[in-house]
Amino acid sequence: MPSHTPTIEAFPYFNVVPLLLNANCLSLKPAFAVASEAKEKWGGKVRALVRGSGPDQVWPLLEDFFSLHKWVPTIDTCYGVEGVSGEPGCVRYCSGTRSSADGSEDVFTDWAMEKLLVTDPINKSFTYEIVDCNNVGFKSLAATMKLTEVRDAEEEDGCGMSWYFTVNQIEGWTEKDLTEFYSAALRVMAERIQAALSSKGQ
Fold first, then answer.
1. What digits encode the pLDDT tens for the residues 127-161?
2. For 56-91, how does the pLDDT look when each residue is reduced to its tens digit (9 = 90+)?
3. Which domains does the chain have, with CATH numbers?
4. Does this model's pTM top 0.85?
């Protein structure tokens, strides 16, 4: 169990993520559909703000389901392995490299595959799940990203990014630590999106 709040660098694969894919991966059932592995689930919501841009500007960046590596620094690679990006049923492969914790020169690749379930361009939201083909220890993950307009006298106008998740318990973590990790990761993601839109003058 972590003795301190984990940072995004401490858990390389976000939203939970080898260059050679097992051909059987795509035929496997989603992990959360396997009843034999049903356990008490964790769940939560984290939120971040993209300042200066609204949902209409942010949505085109996120609806490209195969572009997660552009927004999450710990993901080196993200590409489609099935379907068309942004269409329900498409599957993406995500991976990130990390150094060995023992100080050696060994480098490890954490990877996972995720399937887009539902997308709603009108309400700016989409839902996806991790499939049972990963090496990061997830037995299930279902998540929804939703964008909302933010106009608040106490908060700078912009786009609110809300990420809801449910996941089976993960060994070595607590629900609080995992939620704090996801919160930190979403803030970094929002900052990257904000920078990209600012550079385009949006």
1. 999 987 666 666 788 999 999 999 875 667 899 99
2. 999 999 999 999 999 998 899 999 999 999 999 999
3. 8-199 (3.30.530.20)
4. no
